[in-house]
Amino acid sequence: MKLTYIMTLVLLGLISYPTRVLAQVDQLPNQSFVNTLSQSKRPNFPDNGAPIGRRKGGTSRDGCTPLNTPITALVPGEEIADESKSFLAFTTYEYPTFWVFVPELPKNAVLGEFQLQDENGKNIYKTYLSLPRKASVVDIKLPHNPQSALKINKNYQWYFKVFCGNPQQMPEYFYVNAWIQRVPLNSNLESQLKRTQSRKYTTYALNQIWQDALTNLATLRRYDPKSQLFTKDWTLLLKDVGLAEFATAPIVELESGQKTITQSN
Length: 265
Known about the structure:
Helix content: 10-25%
Strand content: 25-35%
Largest sheet: 9 strands, mixed
CATH architecture: Sandwich
Number of helices: 6
CATH class: Mainly Beta
Oligomer: single chain
Number of strands: 13
Structural class: alpha+beta
Number of domains: 1
């Protein structure tokens, strides 16, 4: 299946002349980087056989009270009828950060779970999470240990679940799932990242490395929430993958609880 999402940040001028455009970006520290780019024809993403997941939360059974707004994985995808499918996202990190929008939840939904598997479905990492009581964009970080490190050019599937009560007594839950692949950090990309300095999300976006673009920009926005520049770029980044409705949600770091780690062969 073709990877059909298109990012405003990845325009024809960027693909053809990345060095020139990135230099322009660095010279305009107080201007949204998208304003420095040509608004001409956008390229289509190539067909890379990306696996498909579930971007908007479904339920494991019918025992969960419907949510006004679904749990949503902040990943590239597309809307098809009443379904929202997610595609493979890229990262350069061994231990990437994963992002999910969690809406306001019922009082009995207080526990979440994050699970990472290899492409064969073998568990690599699992952790329980305390959930925010207000609608938020949340991040989940992989622990820095060999068992959970992503290998280059390997596909991994991840799940985020919100239980509708005690998972030991009532295992119903809402969930999303998506795919991620670690790609090499080559010398050309490293050179581009050095030129963009603190605003590395510009380079990641140009190179279609969605996971790292999102993480870098979300981190900058969390620590400088009053920045009009980061706010504008955050909105545009989410808008281009059909997730603009979550741009104003606060960004919250979740607290991990009990962890279970399984060695991947």
